[in-house]
Amino acid sequence: MDIKAYIALALTLFTIGVIGVLVRRNAIIIFMCVELMLNAVNLLLVGFSKMHAISPAAKALPTYASDAQIFVFFIMVVAAAEVSVGLAIIVMMYRNTHSVDVNFLNRLKN
Amino acid sequence: MTNIFKLIWLIPILPLIGFMLNGLGRKAFSKGVSGFIGTGVVLASFVISLFVFLDVKNGNAHTVHYFDFLHLTAYKIGFDFKIDQLSSLFLLIITGVGFLIHLYSTAYMHEEDSKDFAKYFSYLNLFVFSMLLLVMGGNFVIMFIGWEGVGLCSYLLIGYWFKNNDYTNAAKKAFIMNRIGDLGFLLAVFWLLAKLGTVSYDEVFSAASLAKLSATDITGITLLLFVGATGKSAQIPLYTWLPDAMAGPTPVSALIHAATMVTAGIYMIARSNVLFSMAEHTQTIITIVGLATALFAASIAIKQNDIKKVLAYSTVSQLGFMFIALGTGNYVAAVFHVLTHAFFKALMFLGSGSVIHAMGGEQDIRRMGGLHKHMKITSITFFIGCLAIAGIPGLSGFFSKDEILAGAYGHSKLIYSLTLFAALLTAFYMFRLYIITFTGKFRGTTVQEHHLHESPWAMTVPLIILAILSVIGGYVGVPESLGGHHELAAFLGPVVKSAQHHLNHNTEYILMALSTGLVLLSILFAWTRFKNYKVEAESTGFGRILQNKWYVDEIYNAVILNPLKGLSNFFSNVIEKKGIDGVVNGAGKAVNYGSRQLRWLQSGQVGAYILLMVIGILCLFIVQLFFNN
Questions:
Q1: Which residues in chain B have Cβ-Cβ distances shorter than 8 Å to A22?
Q2: pLDDT at A56 over 60
Q3: Using CA atoms, how far apart are residues B336 and B230, in angstroms rounded to an integer?
Q4: Between the N and C ends of chain B, which has fewer C-beta atoms within 10 Å?
Q5: Of A25, A30, A109, the CB nearest to B604
Q6: Which residues of A touch B614 (CB under 8 A)?
Q7: DSSP string covering B114-134, please?
Q8: How many CB pairs under 8 A join A and B?
Q9: In this structure, are residues B228 and B179 in contact, taking their beta carbons and an 8 Å threshold?
């Protein structure tokens, strides 16, 4: 498949993620959007790695094709850890404010 | 080298020790102790100077090298003392007259606290030390150290009563005026170093006589040296500090006017006579300045009512005479006049001190009068001083002044007649002072009249000694026409080469008779005018101009001081406050204001932060895309 399709998909997902973070106030949704951006980048990483693996220039170094895919797994593992921390923060936030609206947390203003 | 020459370092060191002792022990010493130390060290210096003088008289002149004062790759400036005929004579004047003034001060300053008393004597000793260093130095640099030293000491002593604002201003004026002159001196020394690489007298003068200096160099150097001399020796245009220097205690005025300080300029030019004889233009300028000063100051002295101010302007005028002598190449006459002037001017200053002492601090002659019957010794000695300065035959002033006049006559008849006129003015104002102060009726308050008394012996003895010297001091220089041999000229001959104007004896007799006759007339005129002196109304017209000293201080204020003050005010109020402070405070204010405004960006809204972050990232992308090729 053409790499452009992957790029387009990743770009779309990333843009959705950015817009979601910017416009939504629900912390959980924002969190999900952050994950969406993260995975858009993952997708791009895998896509480019595949592209380079089949290109003539990379034939001399065949192992490059799997490097990025392994790297993506690492990212997912770290992201999972991050999710657990992030969710814990959201739980704590809910306990304190009885809301998950990030706009309540504006004590640092001015 | 004879034995006494091994001791010459003691001459300046002794007053320095006196200065140290009195300065450090001022809280511990009683008045008697500090007076004894201060006077004793100068007396000891005088005794050594006397032996040195006798030795030099036998033909032993030496330059003694002690150590290298400065040792650079190109130059080597030694700490040398040059003891020859000229400096040994000045040593005698400084330590001798200086001793009498010290002795006098022990009585005059007796009302001061013992701490101030010791301070006074330590300054006085430092003054003598500086002056000795000035005349003993074997090169221009050592002379400059002493030169600066006397400037400093005059500042300290004029501002001795430093709690009075006017007095400290007078002290500052003296210091600053001197600094202007010192700059000229310093530049001359630099010029010499640059051209010859040496400042030692012997080397400079021998180089100059071997024509190693171009005419321009010599004219420039001598002119700059002369600028230095105008500062120290109070000539136009830098003389205004000397009358103001009256702010100091009276013995200090005597010291400045007679023994030290003002003679420094004369000494320096007489010392450098080899250079000055080669610089015709400089000599012309010196003559003109001397003549102008002599007339100018004498005219001011006629109208002054402060006893010390009259004497101060008289000093300025007499210094003018000395400069006329220097300018006409008559160096011996200048040194001779320094010698005789030291006697009679010290005498008159100390006499005026005695009068002020008796009057309880009053200095205005309009409130004196008839003092003769209350203080005979002071009056008689003062009268002798007046006779001497007026140039009555037989007294010291006659011989020295006559020699200056004869030299001026040999030079040009115009200079002669103007100098003679200044001499007549001298006689007139001195006798005006004497007649108003010592004769007639007392015009002060009755309290003052009861207080009138003759001064104690420590004040009258110096007066008597100085009066005797004022009478006989002239006989070291009796001219050949009067059957003398002029011992002074013969003595100074090896060092000071005067241009000889051989007038025939008949001309000299005529000149002497002329000046004596006119001086007597002038005295007579003063007598008729002031014998029934009453306090005059404010003078008008020309007299008013003279009373206000030709408005020189006012002119200096308007032309130099006020523009300078305006400029510094402009710098302090506009440049400093608006400019520099504006930039510094402006930077602070800008940051303050900017951060106050930027504060509102921190809204606390997470969404807003992220939006800004996204915008930032986009900006970076744009930069990356378009500008990073």
A1: 607, 610-611, 614
A2: no
A3: 19
A4: C
A5: A109
A6: 18, 22
A7: HHHHHHHHHHHHHHHHHHHHH
A8: 33
A9: no
How many angstroms separate the most distant Cα atoms in chain B? Answer: 119
Contact call for residues B323 and B235 (beta carbons, < 8 A): yes
The secondary element (H helix, E strand) that includes residue B80 is strand B76-83
Q: How far is B610 from chain A (nearest CA, A)?
A: 7
Task: Domain ranges for chain B, please list them.
Answer: 556-627
Decide if B607 and A102 are in contact by the 8 Å CB cutoff.
Answer: yes
Contact B402, B461 (CB under 8 A): no
Q: CA–CA distance from B513 to each of B425, B506, B509, B517 (Å)?
A: 17, 11, 6, 6
Whether pTM exceeds 0.90: no
**B54: Cβ contacts below 8 Å, ≥ 6 apart:** none
Q: Measured between beta carbons, which residues in chain A are less than 8 angstroms from residue B602?
A: 108-110
Looking at residue A110, its pLDDT comes to 63
Domains of chain A (ranges plus CATH)? 3-102 (1.10.287.3510)
Count of CA atoms in the C-beta half-sphere (13 A) of B393: 12
| Full DSSP string of B136-197 | HBSBHHHHHHHHHHHHHHHHHHHTSSTTSHHHHHHHHHHHHHHHHHHHHHHHHHHHHHHHHS
Residue to substitute from B599, B610, B617, B621, interface A, most A β-carbons within 10 A: B610
User: Tens digit of pLDDT for each residue in B568-596?
Assistant: 999 888 888 888 998 999 999 999 999 99
> Tell me, what's the pLDDT at B321?
92
Residue pair B351/B438 in contact (Cβ under 8 Å)? The answer is no
Q: How far is CA B27 from CA A53, B116, B298, B332, B444, in A?
A: 100, 9, 44, 46, 38
Nearest by CB to B606, from A18, A23, A102: name it.
A102
C-alpha B19/C-alpha B38 separation (Å) is: 7
Please check whether residue B145 is in contact with residue B137, taking contact to mean a CB–CB distance below 8 angstroms.
yes
Question: How far is B273 from B288, CA to CA, in rounded Å?
Answer: 18
Peptide linkage before B237 cis (omega within 30 of 0): yes
Give the Cα separation of B329 and B321 in Å (integer). 13
At residue B536, the pLDDT reads 66
Handedness of CA B562, B567, B572, B573 (dihedral sign): positive
Segment B520-538, tens digit of pLDDT? 998 888 888 887 777 666 6
Rounded Cα gap, residues B429 and A94, in angstroms: 109
What is the distance in angstroms between the CA of the first residue and the CA of the last residue of chain B? 90
Two tokens at B165? 């604002």
Residue A20 neighbours by CB distance under 10 Å: 18
Cβ contact B125:B34 at 8 Å? no
Give Cα separations from B263 to B216, B232, B235, B566 (angstroms). 27, 8, 12, 36
Find residues 50-89 of chain A whose CB sits inside 8 Å of chain B.
none
For helices B505-530 and B376-390, angle between their N-to-C axes, nearest 10 degrees: 140
Contact between B397 and B391 under an 8 Å Cβ cutoff? The reply is yes
Q: Do B604 and A23 touch (CB under 8 A)?
A: no
Model pLDDT for residues B313-323, shown as the tens digit of each residue: 999 999 999 99
Question: What stretches of B186-271 adopt beta strand conformation (E)?
Answer: none
What ipTM was reported for this prediction? 0.79
Look at the alpha carbons of B159, B164, B166, B168 in this order and tell me if their dihedral is positive or negative.
positive
Task: Check if A25 contacts B (Cβ < 8 Å).
Answer: yes
Residue B454: pLDDT band with limits 50, 70, 90: confident
Q: Under 8 Å CB-to-CB from B102, ≥6 apart: which residues? A: B38, B39, B42, B121, B124, B251
Q: What angle do CA B340, B126, B339 make, to 5 degrees?
A: 5
Facing residue for B610 by CB, picked from A22, A105, A110: A22
Measure the CA–CA gap between B193 and B207, rounded to whole angstroms.
12
